[in-house]
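TASK: fixed-backbone design
INPUT:
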């Protein structure tokens, strides 16, 4: 991998959130964590020079669609594609502007060491079509990973926890130390596997749930009767319809209770 990086003049760019994971033992572990790959299309976001890409192909991925915006890395990936004819497609573009489901066939999985600076926006965008994936095996900063799997009454539980757990079941798998990356970031990273639910945990509209959680966790230490005033609707009648205690705080509510508030707000 270091020869590939040198040949293509690739240095990590902070503006692209690049921290390259070159340890083939670790990339192989990530690929294995995604489960059987032989019959699926794997979408990889931000492959960089292709260390994880190599691991996915070596693990038997039937097809890999690699989305990369760095032209230097696109060249390196194109070189790799020649060794795996028909199995690696390189898409040059911004992952935030592309829909992986439109670029891949079913069954599909996403496996990626996500760029830190766009990891959360990417995941929130994918939630709209989460049911079209068998699973998502993703690397985040440890702090973000803990939010994904955070339970009520824990300090990591927040808006991201509710939105993700409403539609899927996230599981923290293992950590990757900073020293494994080039350059080394200032944080520990964690690999998370996200498996879509067969149906949402409770009925709700995503837009309403987003509004409710934004208001509630925007002032997470305050009681709901205060934090939800930013919605611009009578709060106590809303909470009464949802059968949620007005003196509760956001961090105390379950995902199902947030969904109940979202339904009550929609039904007026």
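OUTPUT:
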């Amino acid at each position: 991998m270091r020869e590939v990086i040198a040949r293509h003049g690739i240095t990590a760019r902070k503006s692209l959130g690049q921290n390259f994971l070159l340890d083939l033992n670790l990339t192989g572990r990530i690929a294995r964590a995604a489960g059987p790959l032989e019959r699926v299309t794997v979408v990889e976001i931000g492959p960089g020079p292709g260390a994880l890409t190599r691991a996915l192909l070596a693990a038997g991925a039937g097809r890999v669609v690699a989305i990369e915006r760095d032209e230097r890395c696109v060249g390196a990936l194109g070189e790799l594609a020649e060794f795996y004819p028909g199995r690696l497609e390189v898409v040059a573009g911004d992952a935030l502007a592309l829909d992986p489901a439109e670029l891949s066939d079913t069954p599909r999985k996403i496996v990626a060491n996500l760029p830190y600076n766009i990891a959360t926006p990417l995941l929130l965008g994918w939630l709209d079509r989460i049911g079209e994936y068998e699973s998502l095996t993703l690397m985040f900063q440890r702090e973000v990973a803990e939010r994904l799997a955070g339970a009520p009454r824990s300090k990591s539980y927040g808006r991201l926890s509710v939105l993700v757990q409403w539609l899927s079941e996230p599981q923290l798998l293992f950590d990757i130390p900073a020293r494994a990356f080039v350059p080394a970031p200032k944080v520990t990273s964690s690999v998370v596997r996200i498996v879509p639910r067969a149906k949402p945990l409770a009925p709700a509209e995503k837009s309403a749930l987003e509004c409710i959680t934004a208001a509630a966790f925007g002032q997470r230490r305050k009681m709901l009767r205060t934090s939800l005033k930013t919605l611009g609707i009578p709060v106590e009648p809303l909470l009464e319809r949802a059968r949620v205690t007005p003196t509760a705080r956001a961090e105390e509510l379950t995902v199902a209770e947030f969904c109940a508030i979202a339904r009550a707000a929609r039904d007026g």
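COMMENT: DSSP finds eleven helices and nine strands in the chain.
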